[in-house]
Amino acid sequence: MSDLGHVLVLAGGLSHERDVSLRSGRRVAEALREIGVDVSQRDADADLLSTLVSEPPAVVFPLLHGTQGEDGAIQEVLTLAGIPYVGSPPGSCRQTFDKPVAKGLLEAAALKTPPGAVLSQATFRDLGAAALLDALVARLGLPLIVKPARGGSSLGTSVVTEAESLPSAMVECFAYGQAAMIEQKIDGTEIAVSVVDTGSGPKALPAVEIVAESGTYDYHARYTAGTTEYFVPARLGDAVAQTVADAAVKAHRALGLRDLSRTDMIVDHHGTPWLLDVNVAPGMTETSLLPQAVRAAGIGLGDLVRDLLVVALNRR
């Protein structure tokens, strides 16, 4: 397929998720080459904008994760350069990457998210850490999930089962950002639902059920083969499967996303989905969730990426 022209896959960057991004980029580039697409891969560096202007590709697939990749920054650069790209517009990326903002928009769309609170590092330091932590436990109970208010791949995320562990969890979280989101840990089945739109509206792919060997789907469990068991499609009844699919599409629309997204959820024992995070640049590594859903849907990864590139190219 040469009708696309030259495709550029952007991967790498300087975020904590650089390694994951590079692996995602290689996987997508290889999948495109297998179906005959002219594709190259490059890092995001100080020469990127000048290169895009002097040697513009036909279309770009950005696979940068974390800061600059999912916070709207690289999307702004591509927009300035006039290069069509796969993915959501800058403003939608910004509001989705900021978890407290996204949480408010999801709740406004009548989607359930776990009860929680947000504390900045300055507040934690200046207003008395001990009293704040006591108030958190009194209000939200235990166990809790502590995670950076901005970021991905579960970096800086901890499960807190005892009040004595909360201070260290907050300190670890602040190593990855200036604010922490603390939420109740919902008991149930952990799933991820990817949404893709190849031109006929957003549609949910089969849900992926996640069973981490350690009990926590952290960075190690996400990217180390053999440490997590996946069930695709997830072991849900038909009615619940439709409910989670509808919730993912509704989240995609509520946040103003386009092309692709992934929503992480917990389905409780009543079959109710609780939305945890929405990702605008889902991973594409060997163990990533969206490629597993694509395979379960009977779609080739290269074919899906090509279709998304065509949509982006036509948008210009």
From TrEMBL:
<protein>
    <recommendedName>
        <fullName>D-alanine--D-alanine ligase</fullName>
        <ecNumber>6.3.2.4</ecNumber>
    </recommendedName>
</protein>
<dbReference type="GO" id="GO:0008360">
    <property type="term" value="P:regulation of cell shape"/>
</dbReference>
<keyword id="KW-0436">Ligase</keyword>
<keyword id="KW-0460">Magnesium</keyword>
<dbReference type="InterPro" id="IPR011095">
    <property type="entry name" value="Dala_Dala_lig_C"/>
</dbReference>
<dbReference type="Pfam" id="PF01820">
    <property type="entry name" value="Dala_Dala_lig_N"/>
</dbReference>
<keyword id="KW-0573">Peptidoglycan synthesis</keyword>
<feature type="active site">
    <location>
        <position position="17"/>
    </location>
</feature>
<dbReference type="InterPro" id="IPR005905">
    <property type="entry name" value="D_ala_D_ala"/>
</dbReference>
<dbReference type="GO" id="GO:0005737">
    <property type="term" value="C:cytoplasm"/>
</dbReference>
<comment type="similarity">
    <text>Belongs to the D-alanine--D-alanine ligase family.</text>
</comment>
<dbReference type="GO" id="GO:0071555">
    <property type="term" value="P:cell wall organization"/>
</dbReference>
<feature type="binding site">
    <location>
        <position position="264"/>
    </location>
    <ligand>
        <name>Mg(2+) 1</name>
    </ligand>
</feature>
<feature type="domain" description="ATP-grasp">
    <location>
        <begin position="103"/>
        <end position="310"/>
    </location>
</feature>
<feature type="binding site">
    <location>
        <position position="279"/>
    </location>
    <ligand>
        <name>Mg(2+) 2</name>
    </ligand>
</feature>
<keyword id="KW-0963">Cytoplasm</keyword>
<dbReference type="GO" id="GO:0046872">
    <property type="term" value="F:metal ion binding"/>
</dbReference>
<dbReference type="GO" id="GO:0009252">
    <property type="term" value="P:peptidoglycan biosynthetic process"/>
</dbReference>
<dbReference type="Pfam" id="PF07478">
    <property type="entry name" value="Dala_Dala_lig_C"/>
</dbReference>
<feature type="active site">
    <location>
        <position position="288"/>
    </location>
</feature>
<dbReference type="GO" id="GO:0008716">
    <property type="term" value="F:D-alanine-D-alanine ligase activity"/>
</dbReference>
<keyword id="KW-0133">Cell shape</keyword>
<keyword id="KW-0479">Metal-binding</keyword>
<dbReference type="GO" id="GO:0005524">
    <property type="term" value="F:ATP binding"/>
</dbReference>
<comment type="pathway">
    <text>Cell wall biogenesis; peptidoglycan biosynthesis.</text>
</comment>
<keyword id="KW-0961">Cell wall biogenesis/degradation</keyword>
<feature type="active site">
    <location>
        <position position="153"/>
    </location>
</feature>
<dbReference type="InterPro" id="IPR011761">
    <property type="entry name" value="ATP-grasp"/>
</dbReference>
<dbReference type="InterPro" id="IPR016185">
    <property type="entry name" value="PreATP-grasp_dom_sf"/>
</dbReference>
<keyword id="KW-0464">Manganese</keyword>
<comment type="function">
    <text>Cell wall formation.</text>
</comment>
<dbReference type="InterPro" id="IPR013815">
    <property type="entry name" value="ATP_grasp_subdomain_1"/>
</dbReference>
<keyword id="KW-0067">ATP-binding</keyword>
<dbReference type="InterPro" id="IPR011127">
    <property type="entry name" value="Dala_Dala_lig_N"/>
</dbReference>
<keyword id="KW-0547">Nucleotide-binding</keyword>
